[in-house]
Specification:
Strand order of the largest sheet: 2-1-3
Order of helices and strands: EEHEHHHHHHHHHHHHHHHH
Distance between the termini: 94 Å
CATH architecture of the largest domain: Up-down Bundle
Oligomer: single chain
CATH class of the largest domain: Mainly Alpha
Number of strands: 3
Length: 407
């Protein structure tokens, strides 16, 4: 079943537009007339056209669908299913409520596939750019256990917590980044426009200038006359680093540096542990098997070193070892984490313990972010002060020397 975009007139002659699912354009026109609408134009959506042209089922346009919108859709679908509304009718209601046109088209495609007998899991799997492997596997477990509404509610909670944590991290960095950009702009203007006018007097005196003044003049000339070369060099360095990081060996080094960095390293490690615990706990609680859950979590962990530890842990678990023993040999999983996992395994309540671990690390991440932000701001002020102080000192040194000569 395809999805069509239409423009139509209602009985009062008012223009309307929207989307409708049908097997053909003729059936779409028939459906619209049955709804009391008179079609003016009907065409396949951009996603449907891409299928017929062989461009794949997922487009970059999917990136317009925000994770917050997917979370809201998931919670609404869970509420509708929990109220006893059939799945197809619930998806129809979501189409009417969704404002994002791209997400509305995706829901229409999912509804059409489900209406034809496809499971919700397979219908969601057609849109991997929007629905992650965690989302799809948890829905699969919900369909198998008959608790789809409960699983969708957990998915909404999980997605909202993840978005909230990422939002706090981004919000904490907005002010330091803003101050860094403004400060760099001010220094650039000082060095390229103001300093040359002042140091021109020293250059005309034909006297030996102090080393800081010579350095400042040279830096000013370079930035004023060859700023574009500086930008090219910075671009080449960034592109080169990205190319190196894209290679397996470079990625290993970069991920190790991120984990061992003085300030960001502990925060990065706690973020990964919180994501590991929260995702694994949600998957297990939804009925997904341990090995499948570990594989999904491994795919989500954006660090090759911790991913390797999880891979080795899965091998040990297959041989009969507990998760506690399998993870205890790694330096990336701290003793507190291992002890709480051990308690969860011994009590038979691993899912609840993983969620407690996730909450604990989420709180630590929030505290660390606040502390990091509080530390970055004075460091930036000190750096700006040192830069401005160097400029002032470089200008004043020749003046002091001239005063001594006159005296």
């Amino acid at each position: 079943m395809a999805v069509f975009e239409y423009r139509a007139l209602d009985p009062k002659g008012k223009k309307q537009k929207g989307i409708i699912d049908a097997n053909s354009e003729a059936q779409a026109r028939t459906k619209l007339r049955a709804m009391g609408r008179y079609p003016v134009s009907i065409a396949l959506t951009s996603m449907e056209r891409s299928k017929t042209e062989g461009q794949g089922k997922s487009l970059n346009l999917f990136k317009r669908v925000k994770s917050e919108e997917v979370s809201l859709m998931t919670r609404q679908l869970a509420t509708l299913l929990g109220a006893g509304i059939p799945l197809v009718q619930a998806l129809e209601s979501l189409m009417a409520q969704t404002r994002n046109s791209m997400l509305k088209k995706v829901i229409a495609q999912i509804k059409g596939a489900v209406n034809e007998g496809t499971s919700l899991t397979n219908a969601l799997g057609e849109h991997p750019k929007i629905f992650s492997s965690v989302f799809i596997n948890m829905v699969r477990a919900g369909e198998a256990s008959g608790t789809l509404d409960i699983v969708l509610e957990r998915l909404a909670d999980f997605s909202e917590k993840k978005d909230e944590l990422q939002g706090r991290f981004r919000a904490a960095l907005v002010y330091p980044i803003f101050m860094g950009v403004i400060g760099s702009g001010i220094l650039f203007i000082l060095i390229t426009y103001i300093v040359p006018n002042i140091t021109q007097v020293f250059a005309e005196m034909n006297k030996v200038l102090p080393l800081p003044t010579l350095f400042l003049i040279a830096l000013s000339d370079i930035l004023k006359n060859f700023w574009w070369v500086v930008l090219i060099i910075i671009g080449v360095i960034v592109a080169g680093l990205r190319f190196i990081i894209s290679k397996p060996s470079g990625k290993r080094v970069w991920h190790y540096v991120k984990l061992k960095a003085l300030i960001l390293g502990p925060v990065q490690q706690k973020v990964i542990l919180a994501r590991f615990s929260s995702t694994l706990g949600s998957l297990l609680e939804s009925g997904v098997g341990l090995m499948m859950s570990m594989q999904i979590v491994q795919a989500l962990v954006d660090n090759v070193h911790i991913s390797k530890v999880i891979d080795e842990a899965m091998e040990q678990i297959r041989k009969g070892q507990s998760m506690t023993v399998a993870l205890s040999s790694s330096e990336w999983f701290p003793p507190m984490f291992i002890q709480m996992i051990a308690v969860g395994e011994q009590s038979g309540n691993l899912e609840a313990m993983l969620k407690k671990v996730a909450k604990a690390y989420e709180r630590e991440v929030e505290t660390a972010i606040l502390g990091m932000t509080a530390l970055i701001e004075p460091l930036m002020i000190v750096a700006m002060g040192l830069a401005v102080g160097f400029i002032v000192l470089s200008i004043l040194l020749p003046i002091f020397e001239m005063n001594q000569m006159v005296g």
